[in-house]
Amino acid sequence: MDQTTFRILDKLSSNLGRDYSILSLTNELSGKDHKAYYKNIFDKIKELYKAGDIILKKIGNSSIISINFNNYDAVNLLSQLELMKQRQLLEKDAELKMVLCELSGLFRLNFCYINSISVIRPEKNKALNRQEFLFILKEFGKNNDQAVKEEIIGIHRIMKALANMHNMKLDCLILREAEFAQLLNEGAHNPLKEMISSQTVLTYGENYWLEIMKLSNEGIPISGAGEINPAKIDESEVIYNLALFGYKELGGAIEKGRDYCMETIIISLFLSEDARRMEAIPIILNKNLERGRKIIFNLLIFLALKYGKERKLLGYLQYLNDHKKNDELANAIALMTCIGIKPEKIDKKSIKQKLELYHGN
Fold first, then answer.
1. Closest by Cα among 215, 207, 190, 193 to 16
2. Could you say which DSSP state residue 261 is in?
3. H helices of the chain, where?
4. What does the domain layout of the chain look like in residue ranges?
5. Which strand ranges, in their side-by-side order, compose the sheet holding 130-137?
6. Which of 292 and 177 is assigned the larger pLDDT?
7. CA atoms within 13 A on the CB side of 348
8. DSSP string of 149-192, one letter each residue
9. CATH class of residue range 3-67
10. What pTM does this model have?
11. Residue 95 contacts residue 106 (beta carbons within 8 Å)
């Protein structure tokens, strides 16, 4: 793959769902360290279009460019792109190369449900002495459910061992294919949409892009998003989102704002360290579990570990499960317990009162 093709596909694949004209793409590819010329980009776009790797959609006087996920050859190109990105990444840093090679080798040998592994924002996170990973797991039906759960525990344990070995924080979001699809399909902002804008696939790059291809062809909108710190979500947007989840007790006018997934809002409440705001957590969890709303506990656990709120989360989940048994809660508690998380002591009497007051029981 030549450098111009690499840069075009890298930009398009990192900004899925964003409209690019040839001019806007050329402007973005012209940065401090690179120069891009309209004619070069135009000629390469024509070449990729002729091969069927991209789509050109006429809007006004512009042609909007997107990857053609109806063409399997485009997936092959994107797999090559991931190999080049990985090679460039590992050439820059010997320590990071050691961590990533150990991780890749371990999971290729010992696990059968992993569909792909990606590293997220590696250069930015390295400066913070941490790395972040996305694991997508294959779906093999309910008969394999217990084996998948055991594999998730195994992944967490290996990541913890590698973190201790390299004295580096390693966080991993582990999603089943159905959860991956659910998060991409929902309109709310969520961490997965942030990740697909900043990932480098380490293993099974073709599997990753085949999954994106499959979902795109099923009509699921594939779009990325910028990174959001849950601690910095505006108070008015927290109030708005809590109202969507059935909690309207924080006061203040409810004005439409940006939609966030429930898991992000829960971590935002934990990070506020405000007892009144945290009162909402068991109530919205309980209400939405009763309503049958799918809460992605793998995402919630990832965020809790990332922001250091895992012990507090486990305390809440254990209380809720004691209050009213629930299989999803029990599975999340079992995972957190198996990877060595100890629950933080919580005010059970206060939570019980609030659940009764807001009809969460």
1. 193
2. -
3. 3-14, 22-29, 38-50, 72-92, 94-110, 122-126, 145-166, 177-185, 191-195, 205-217, 235-244, 262-272, 275-278, 280-290, 297-306, 310-323, 327-338, 348-357
4. 3-67, 72-217, 230-357
5. 169-176, 130-137, 114-120, 199-203
6. 177
7. 11
8. HHHHHHHHHHHHHHHHHHT-EEEEEEEEHHHHHHHHHSSSB-HH
9. mainly alpha
10. 0.92
11. no
Parallel, antiparallel or unpaired: strands 54-59 and 62-67:
antiparallel
Are 205 and 116 spatial neighbours (Cβ–Cβ below 8 Å)? yes
φ, ψ at 151 (rounded to 5°): -70, -40
Q: What are the angstrom distances between the C-alpha of 265 and each of 148, 182, 257?
A: 27, 17, 13
Half-sphere exposure (Cβ direction) of 303: Cα atoms closer than 13 Å = 26
C-alpha dihedral sign at 106, 111, 115, 119:
negative
CA atoms 198, 66, 189, 186: torsion sign: negative
> Which residue's structure tokens are 């111009």?
4
| End-to-end Cα, the chain, rounded Å | 59
Residue with tokens 């998060």: 183
Going from the C-alpha of 134 to that of each of 164, 211, 252, the distances in angstroms are 19, 14, 37
CA-wise closest residue to 8 among 33, 56, 42, 50: 42
Work out the pLDDT band at 60, boundaries 50, 70, 90.
confident
pLDDT in tens, 98-156: 888 888 777 777 788 999 999 999 989 999 999 999 999 998 766 778 889 999 999 99
Give the span between the Cα atoms of 237 and 298, in whole angstroms: 24
> How many CB atoms neighbour CB 286 within 10 A?
24
Residue 21 pLDDT greater than 60, yes or no? yes
| Segment 15-42 mean pLDDT | 79
